[in-house]
Amino acid sequence: MRVLKLLILSTLFLTVSCKNEDVHTAQEIVDQAIAVAGGNTIANSSIHFKFRDYYYRATRTKNLRTLERCTDKECQVQQDVLNENGEFIRFRESELITVPDSMKTRYGNSINSVHYFSVLPYGLNDPAVKKTFLDETTVKNQPYYRIKVTFKQEGGGDDFKDEYLYWIHKETYNVDYLAYNYQTAEGGTRFREAYNERIVNGVRIVDYKNYKPKNQYPPLDSLDILFENNELNLLSTIDLENVTITAATN
Questions:
Q1: For residues 51 and 117, what is the distance between their CA atoms, to the nearest angstrom?
Q2: CATH class in words for 41-247
Q3: Whole-angstrom distance between the N-terminal and C-terminal Cα of the chain?
């Protein structure tokens, strides 16, 4: 009888140990996701792409991050810049022009948003980001970790109240889906499905199908179910064109 109890206890111990080995923290999952997406390359890079009517450039090094949006490929007609201090500056034909403070915030947020989504999940280790492991689930019969992201007010920008949810594949560590709610303008919720994956100089680049739920603020953790049940409306596509990635020059 004592031997039987010892066997049962040993089995329970091994079972718990195996389960514990499979448990990851939100930080570990995000670190792995950034690594497989080419985070080391992004950290010291110059990334150029076209999105809709604008040309975008991002320069990242250890001590510098400059984000740009231009109306022409050569950035000669009009160039908007978010410098390393987060300050918005506009040039027109290489001349610095004055922009009202209220519009600086609007333009700066727009530029930052495009660049943020272009290299996800890279930005999820920014100091203002708070990450929480939510649970595990499946979408289209594929296994995912669900990671919730919120932001600290200090360093979180004007949108620090926004909430995000990321579906990170348990085997590939790719971010295949994400959802977020936002408070600016009229507010709302979006769900994005990654597609058209390609590897550019070691960096995973994707486009997104952008969906809108029928209700303004459904729980973010309900959106994968709504997606699988075809209860989301396709609002737009987020397509990055002519992506080039080179090593940044300090």
A1: 12
A2: mainly beta
A3: 71
Residues 57-72 pLDDT 10s: 999 998 889 999 999 9
Beta bridge partners of 138: 143
Rounded to the nearest angstrom, the gap between the alpha carbon of residue 178 and the centroid of all alpha carbons in its chain is 8
User: Reading across the β-sheet that carries 45-51, which strands appear in turn?
Assistant: 95-97, 88-92, 78-82, 65-70, 54-60, 45-51, 241-247
Distance CA 115, CA 22 (A): 33
Burial class (CB in 10 A: 0-12, 13-18, 19+), 186: exposed
Residue 88 tokens read as 């918005």
CA distance 116 to 125: 12
Q: Return all residues near 217 (Cβ < 8 A) that are at least 6 apart.
A: 181, 187, 188, 189
For residues 104 and 109, give the distance between their C-alpha atoms in angstroms, rounded to a whole number: 8
- Residue ranges covered by each domain of the chain: 41-247
- Of 242, 203, 225, 221, the C-alpha closest to 165 is 221
Q: Where are the alpha helices (DSSP H) in 119-198?
A: none
Q: Which of 200, 196, 203 is nearest to 244 (CA)?
A: 200
CA atoms 245, 199, 43, 68: torsion sign: positive
pTM: 0.86
Which of 1-10, 89-98, 155-164, 198-207 has the least mean pLDDT?
A: 1-10
Work out the percent of the chain whose per-residue pLDDT is above 70: 86
> pLDDT tens-digit profile of 158-196?
555 789 999 999 999 999 999 999 876 677 899 999 999
